[in-house]
Amino acid sequence: MTKEEVLALVDKGEMLPLMEEFYTIQGEGFYKGTAAYFIRVGGCDVGCHWCDVKESWNADLHPPTGIDKIVDNAAQYSQTIVVTGGEPLTWNMEPLTKALKAKGLKTHIETSGAYPLTGSWDWVCLSPKKVKLPVEGVYPHANELKMIVYNHHDFAFAEEQAAKVSDSCILYLQPEWSRRDKMIPEIVDFVMKNPRWKVSLQTHKYLNIP
């Protein structure tokens, strides 16, 4: 297959720059503690300075992989499939989710919402970033809103974003890992004063698992 043919398939979403795939425990948000198969797709131009997977940003570093292979691997391990990145919505997710659902699998996505929502999802975790805000069409589809708290100013940003999601969306505040000791007390205080919010922690890091 020529480079041009590969790029054409990537543009269609029939191949994706696969960074890694692994079976583990979901560590964050509503489904924390449940077994899930993660598909991490390369490519992201959001550029969060505290990102803990910066190696995912450059899609060219990750081999274009056919979605049939990705789906076959996923189906061996779990009913719940989490597509993350990078920013997975950089790519067309429709072919991947169609193939996953054909296997009877549940599709979850973790996204900043910086690009239009493609694909068919059973659960959308929206995690907006100040440097590249979500497109308006993503907000109504969010099942959970996960706001990363790096400093005190992020609480106001969290409230701004919460005003844009549906009333049924579950609201989470999660400390940025390197700042957790400083920010957890502030998050706890904020949630106690604003109980519609919940605390999310990266429990997989406490458990020392991927």
Chart the SSEs and their pairings.
Blueprint: H1 3-12, E1 15-25, E2 35-41, E3 64-66, H2 67-75, E4 80-85, H3 94-102, E5 106-111, E6 123-126, E7 144-149, H4 154-162, E8 170-175, H5 180-193, E9 197-199, H6 203-206
Parallel strand pairs: 2-4, 4-5, 5-6, 6-7, 7-8, 8-9
Antiparallel strand pairs: 1-2, 1-3
What descriptive keywords fit this protein?
single chain, 210 residues, alpha/beta, TIM Barrel, nine-stranded mixed sheet, 6 helices
Structure description:
This protein is of the alpha/beta class and 210 residues long. The chain has six helices and nine strands; from the N terminus they run αβββαβαβββαβαβα. It has a single domain (3-206), classed as Aldolase class I (TIM Barrel). 26% of the residues lie in helices and 25% in strands. A nine-stranded mixed β-sheet has the order 3-1-2-4-5-6-7-8-9. Strand 4, helix 3 (94-102) and strand 5 (106-111) form a beta-alpha-beta unit.
CATH superfamily: Aldolase class I
Summed over residues and divided by their number, the pLDDT gives a mean of 93
**Cα-atom radius of gyration:** 17 Å
- Helix vs. strand class: alpha/beta
- Number of DSSP strand runs: 9
Quote the distance from N terminus to C terminus.
Answer: 34 Å
CATH topology: TIM Barrel
Helix content: 25-40%
Briefly characterize the structure.
This protein is α/β, with parallel strands linked by helices and 210 residues long.
